[in-house]
Design goal:
By secondary structure, the chain is mostly beta strands. The chain is built from 1 helix and 7 strands, in the order βββββββα. The chain has a single domain, classed as Beta Barrel (Thrombin, subunit H), CATH 2.40.10.220. The chain has a 6-stranded antiparallel β-barrel with strand order 2-3-4-7-6-5. A hairpin with a 6-residue loop joins strand 6 and strand 7. It is globular and about 35 Å long.
Length: 118
């Protein structure tokens, strides 16, 4: 006998607080050239962005997030991430990609912590 999964409650599945962040992002994944996009939110576990191309779920990517205005060191944040979700964005102006971090270096972790501070 198979069990039926519980009905969705409509509650958010994410376990990390997300913060609005609108910065330029360079996205590179295997077999494709670099493309430019922009982020819309970020958390300790991942980042949401809009890109001109759709990237399949499970694809490993390298990301370079431009520093937001007012960040003292001014260095991009370099991250390795995996695409967790992709969908055509509203209005068809690119693709919404949700990526979760695969590897975070110590400097990137420190930069993310600064961004996520209130």
């Amino acid at each position: 006998m198979q069990s039926t999964p519980p009905a969705s409650t409509g509650r958010e599945r994410r376990s990390h607080r997300r913060k609005t962040l609108n910065v330029a992002v360079q996205l590179c994944h295997p077999g494709r050239q670099l493309c430019d996009g922009h982020s819309f939110d970020i958390s300790a576990a991942g980042v949401g962005l809009i890109a001109p191309i759709g990237v399949p779920v499970g694809t490993a990517c390298n990301l370079s997030l431009a520093p937001p205005d007012g960040v003292p060191d001014g260095n991009p944040i370099e991250l390795q991430a995996v695409v967790a979700h992709t969908v055509l964005s509203r209005g068809g102006a690119g693709f919404r990609l949700d990526l979760r971090y695969a590897e975070v270096s110590t400097p990137a972790a420190a930069a993310l912590a600064r961004l996520l501070k209130d």
